[in-house]
Amino acid sequence: RPTSAAEVKPDDLAAALGAALGKPIPYVPIDNDEFVATVQAAGMIPDSVLGDVVLYADEYRAGTFAIGGPTNIVESVGGQPPEDLEDFYRGQLTAMGILS
């Protein structure tokens, strides 16, 4: 489950991804079938984990991750606060070869 000092909404995720990429990215809700078809066509996520990602998206949309609210578990266990979303995305995009 996402863990941070504040609840993160889909618009926040899109804005942080856009900031990391240097262009605006709007959040546009789509159904699971459209998501799966788009991801498979782009080869973005291995089929072996795609079902887990869809389940995660369902739980996110249902508000499951808001139960219990934001936590400090990352800082408590790791000794420092979690990265902000933009830095997280930038690191992931760099690791994927999308950013240099």
Structure write-up:
The mean pLDDT is 87. This protein is 56% helix and 0% strand. The protein is globular, with a radius of gyration of 15 Å. The protein has 5 helices and no strands. The protein has 100 residues and is an all-alpha fold.
Q: What is the approximate shape? A: globular
List SSEs in N-to-C order.
Answer: HHHHH
Q: Overall pLDDT, averaged?
A: 87
Helix content: 55-70%
Rg over alpha carbons: 15 Å
Low-confidence stretches: none
Count every helix, treating DSSP H or I runs of 4 or more residues as helices.
Answer: 5
Q: How far apart lie the N and C ends?
A: 28 Å
Quick description:
This protein has 100 residues and is mainly α.
Task: Write the SSE topology.
Layout: H1 10-21, H2 32-42, H3 47-62, H4 73-78, H5 85-95
Helix pairs in contact: 1-5, 2-3
Name a few traits of the molecule.
globular, 100 residues, 56% helix, mainly alpha
